[in-house]
Amino acid sequence: MSAPGRDSLVLLETRAGVATLTLNRPRKRNALSPGLVAELSARLARAASDPEVRVVALSGAGPDFCAGADLSAIAASQREGPEAGLADARRLGEVFVTVRRVDRPVVALVRGRALGGGCGLASACDIVLAHPDAIFGYPEVHLGFVPALVMAPLRRKVGEAAAFELVARGRRIGAAEAVSLGLATRVLPGDDFGAAADEYLRELAGLPATAVALTKRLFHGLDGVSYEAAIARGAEVNAMARQTGECRDGVKRFLDRKGD
C-alpha cells in the first residue's frame, strides 16, 4: 500500500508491517496547515484500520520534521474570530488524541526542526527517534502565543520543572538534551539515520502484535489512575494476555527449550 499522489500533503507508504506517514510540505518546513492536519488525520485512520500494519511512523519530507503551526492559517483564524481558532485547534488536538488511541506503536522520526506544534506532534508519539542534528522546542511565547495543545503530551513525557521552562522560555534544545529530559527516546547515528530507523521499526513490527497493542492500551490507560486501580487493571490485562495465541505459543516455545 502506498500514498495516493506525491502532491499529497501527507504521504502514506506501508512496507513489512510499517506504515510511514510523511508530512509533505518541505518548502514550508512541513508546517501544520488545516489541509495537512486533515490529511494526517485521514492517513492515521487508514493506517490504523489496516490489519497488516504493526507500527506507524511519522516523518517529514525535506530537512525538517515539522516547524509547527502554519502562521498564515493562524492569521486567517484571527480575522475570522475565536470560533474559527477553536475549531482549528481542536482538529490538531484530535490528531494528538488519535496518535495515543491507535493500538499500534507510533514512532516519530525527527530530523532537523521539530518546533511548536511539530514538537507536540513528536512528543504525542510513543517513541521519538532523533537525528543527532534534530532541534526540539516550543517557541510560541516569543510570538505572544501560548503552546497550549502541546502541554498535555509534554507534561506526560518531561518532569514538571523542565516542561515549564521549555514552554515559558521557548528555548530550543538539541537531540541529546531532548533524550536526557525524556522528550525523545534515543538518538540514532546521523550518518546512517535512515537505515538505523528502518532497522528499529522492523524489529518493533516483528514483536507479537497483540502483546504490543495490549501494552500500549494499558500504559496510556493508567493516566490519572490510583495505584490500587492501576494494579487492578494490570491484573486484568495480565489475565487477558495469558489467553492469547501469541502468549500460549511463546510460553510453549520457552518450555520446550528448557526441556532440551
Sheet-strand content, in percent, reads: 5-15%
CA gyration radius, whole angstroms: 19 Å
Helix content: 40-55%
Q: Runs with pLDDT <50, length 5+?
A: none
Number of helices: 11
The number of distinct β-strands equals: 9
Please summarize the sheet with the most strands: 6 strands, mixed
Q: Which structural class do you get from the secondary structure elements?
A: alpha/beta
- Strand-and-helix sequence, N→C? EEHEHHEEHEEHHEHEHHHH
**Arrangement of strands in the largest sheet:** 1-2-3-4-6-9
> What is the average of the pLDDT values?
94
Overall, the morphology is: globular
Roughly how many Å apart are the termini?
A: 43 Å
Protein topology:
Elements: E1 10-15, E2 18-23, H1 34-48, E3 55-60, H2 71-80, H3 82-101, E4 106-110, E5 113-115, H4 117-124, E6 127-130, E7 135-137, H5 151-157, H6 160-169, E8 172-174, H7 175-181, E9 186-187, H8 193-205, H9 209-221, H10 227-242, H11 245-258
Parallel strand pairs: 2-3, 3-4, 4-6, 5-7, 6-9
Antiparallel strand pairs: 1-2, 7-8
Helix pairs in contact: 1-3, 2-3, 9-10
